[in-house]
């Protein structure tokens, strides 16, 4: 009798395990069904262009004619020897170093302020800060050309306030153009980082702040001993996103300065566009532009790997 009961129980477990296995495999199949459209679009518009770029980078080809000459690594060597590429390379990192700290710090301060319970019109302020994000970047760039021009609203206001003696050509002066582009980029993308930080703040339990208040901790101490440490994981992700996005900057710079004046705001994206799709440098050179893009993409990947290693070491040190 006992053996029969054991057999029945074993058979029951086996049936349950088989049912769970079938359910799990069925769920996995449905996951792939829903993922397929995204994977297909990624393969067509991201995967294939990346693979094709490696092939084009080995060709001496304008992209307009059927004849293409295989040149191996010559395009990469020419890119490495071009001082204009290194100028654009330097400007890309200058733009990154000028925008990322403000994106992170200013957005964090605003997020902490807007996250305070009982703050009136908090949603309204969030909407105003996020509004530039949903505005088309090229349209923002065109409008800013008029606002920051020699006879624009910025110069007019500063002259009336007595802060300037004569107008400044903010976008046409090599000394001021990069500063102006950075300032507008910070204003344009501040709302995205605000949302990121607000999401991180909402994930922190209120019990921690209440316990700190019971112990007599001030607002500053709660910020540095509770908020900041708990925001570090999401902060590293926000940092990586900002670094990558700032190094890919194109549309704002293209519409405002086109890389000028005298290549003062020329970044790698505008450099690649100039060689691949325009006749500014003669006949387009799609192979050369592909090599320049891959050269810079490898640099961004190395930065991401270094940041990931540093993040893991920081976490490992904390665990110890």
Q: Would you mind describing this structure in some detail?
A:
- Mean pLDDT is 86; it is low at 5-9.
- Strands 1-2 form a two-stranded antiparallel sheet.
- The protein is globular, with a radius of gyration of 27 Å.
- By secondary structure, the chain is mainly α.
- The longest helix is centred in the first third of the chain and has 55 residues, at 2-56.
- It has two domains: 2-40; 69-319, MetI-like fold (Orthogonal Bundle).
- 74% of the residues lie in helices and 1% in strands.
Quick structural gist:
74% of the residues lie in helices and 1% in strands. The chain is mainly alpha-helical and 320 residues long. The longest helix is centred in the first third of the chain and has 55 residues, at 2-56.
Main-sheet strand order equals 1-2
Write down the secondary-structure element order: HEEHHHHHHHHHHH
As a whole number of angstroms, the C-alpha radius of gyration is 27 Å
Count the beta strands.
2
CATH superfamily of the largest domain: MetI-like
Give the integer mean of the pLDDT values.
86
As a percent range, the share of strand residues is: under 5%
Discrete helix count? 12
CATH class of the largest domain: Mainly Alpha
* Shape assignment: globular
> Runs with pLDDT <50, length 5+?
5-9
Tell me the CATH topology of the largest domain.
Answer: MetI-like fold
Largest sheet: 2 strands, antiparallel
In whole angstroms, the N-to-C terminal distance is 56 Å
> What's the structural domain tally?
2
Helix content: over 70%
Proper CATH architecture of the largest domain:
Orthogonal Bundle
Which oligomerization state do the chains in this entry correspond to? single chain
Family: Belongs to the binding-protein-dependent transport system permease family.
Keywords: Cell membrane, Membrane, Transmembrane, Transmembrane helix, Transport
Domain ABC transmembrane type-1: 89-307
Transmembrane segments: 28-57, 95-115, 127-149, 176-199, 223-244, 288-310
């Amino acid at each position: 009798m006992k053996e029969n009961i054991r057999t029945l129980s074993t058979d029951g477990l086996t049936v349950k395990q088989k049912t769970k296995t079938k359910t799990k495999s069925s769920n996995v199949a449905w996951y792939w069904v829903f993922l397929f459209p995204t994977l297909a679009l990624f393969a067509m518009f991201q995967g294939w262009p990346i693979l094709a770029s490696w092939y084009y980078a080995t060709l001496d080809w304008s992209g307009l004619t059927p004849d293409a000459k295989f040149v191996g690594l010559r395009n990469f060597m020419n890119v490495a020897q071009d001082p204009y590429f290194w100028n654009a390379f330097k400007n890309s990192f200058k733009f990154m170093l000028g925008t990322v700290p403000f994106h992170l710090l200013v957005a964090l301060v605003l997020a902490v302020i807007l996250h305070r319970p009982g703050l009136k019109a908090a949603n309204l302020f969030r909407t105003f800060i996020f509004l530039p994000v949903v505005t088309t970047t090229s349209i923002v760039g065109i409008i800013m050309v008029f606002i920051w021009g020699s006879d624009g609203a910025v110069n007019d206001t500063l002259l009336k306030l007595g802060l300037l003696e004569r107008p400044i050509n903010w976008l046409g002066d090599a000394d001021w153009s990069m500063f102006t582009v950075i300032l507008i980029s910070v204003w344009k993308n501040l709302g995205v980082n605000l949302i990121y930080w607000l999401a991180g703040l909402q994930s922190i339990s209120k019990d921690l702040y209440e316990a700190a208040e019971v112990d007599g901790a001030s607002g500053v101490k709660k910020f540095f001993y509770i908020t900041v440490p708990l925001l570090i994981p999401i902060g590293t992700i926000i940092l990586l996103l900002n670094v990558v996005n700032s190094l890919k900057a194109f549309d704002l710079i293209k519409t405002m300065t086109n890389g000028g004046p005298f290549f003062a705001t020329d970044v790698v994206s505008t450099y690649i566009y100039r060689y691949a799709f325009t006749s500014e440098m003669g006949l387009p050179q799609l192979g050369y532009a592909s090599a320049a893009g891959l050269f810079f993409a490898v640099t961004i990947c190395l930065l991401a790997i270094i940041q990931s290693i540093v993040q893991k070491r920081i976490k490992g040190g904390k665990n110890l």
